[in-house]
Hints:
Blueprint: H1 12-15, H2 19-23, E1 29-31, E2 37-38, E3 43-50, E4 56-60
Antiparallel strand pairs: 1-3, 2-3, 3-4
Amino acid sequence: MGEVIEFRKRKPGERARGKTLCREGFHKWEISQRLPFDVKLGKLLTLYKCTRCEATKTEAR
């Protein structure tokens, strides 16, 4: 016979933690450590990364 494996039961709020806010556009942006420089524009680009869903965006300054 095989062994019985117990699965951890999660609460409904734990299952979608952090995904619902990002889906509605409320990302938690954090500045990435890399500092690229755009040669064509001649500007420094800032890379932002969402800590919840790993989405990225760039901003030229």
